[in-house]
Amino acid sequence: MKRIIIYLSILLLSLEFSFSQGYKMMGDEELNKIPLYSKQTYGFSDEIPSKYSLEKYVPPIGDQYNSGSCVGWAVSYYSMSIIYNSKFGISSSAGKYANRFDPWFLFNQITYLEDDSCHEGVLWTEIFDVSDRIGNKKMLFNPIDIDCETDWDNIRLKDVVNYTKPYRITDYEQIPPKDANSVEIIKKEIANYNYPVLIGISHYGEGLDKIGENGIFKPNYDKENYDGHAMTIVGYDDSINGGSFRVVNSWGE
Question: Nearest-5° angle of CA 228, CA 70, CA 140?
Fold first, then answer.
């Protein structure tokens, strides 16, 4: 099977260190290990539509339940699945269900030896390093019953890696949120390259819990609350609220 090389852009919104839903904020030392976005040197002469969405490639909405696995969901389940589905033109419900990538596979490789493997958060760099080494696993591939408590001492990982390595994420870059062009860069990645963009948020208070039927998230910054959460930007629309991103979450439908 031909190896798929993945290029992901990352938007990091905070340098605070936090857990909550599982997104660990990175300090300067870790952050500096991630290359800066490189395509911006070409400018923005390309035409970008006023709205664009990768939603037709998004797998069924999932639920991380009471675990710190949001980075695994954002990277593997949503981003890897979207990129794979986009590359091969998979948009049917059955096709997207069959080709979902496992959110627990990479996450659990990092956390299973911790005292509390379900609630330990992970860094972007940790999960991308593991992805580069062993690749991503489709959910319908064995072992099919992985969760945050899976003990990998009892599973022959080398047998699994034989069919996960073709789905490696080998390259990624960061979009600095303070970059004046950050919004346009995100839109360009989505519309021009069909790539989702990972996003990390912190101090979000009760904003995510109070999203109404219109689906609009209005952050209410909470200085005392260091909650961190990872999600995936899959589209945008310049006509909504003066410009809005379409974001997919891992808290169930």
Answer: 175
What does the alpha-carbon distance between residue 238 and residue 2 come to, in Å, rounded to a whole number? 37
Q: What are phi and psi of 97, to 5 degrees?
A: -65, -45
Structure tokens at 99: 């080709």
H or E stretch at 186: helix 182-193
Can you tell me whether residue 98 is helix, strand or coil? helix
Q: Which residues contact 213 (CB under 8 A, 6 or more apart)?
A: none
Report pTM: 0.86
Model confidence over 29-55: pLDDT tens digits? 878 888 888 885 455 556 899 999 999
Distance between CA atoms of residues 232 and 44, nearest Å: 23
The H-or-E segment that residue 160 falls in is helix 157-164
The Cβ of residue 124 has, within 10 Å, a number of other Cβ atoms equal to 26
Which residue do the tokens 């998004």 mark?
58
User: Could you give the C-alpha distances from 74 to 38, 138, 158, 247, in angstroms and in order?
Assistant: 22, 15, 25, 10
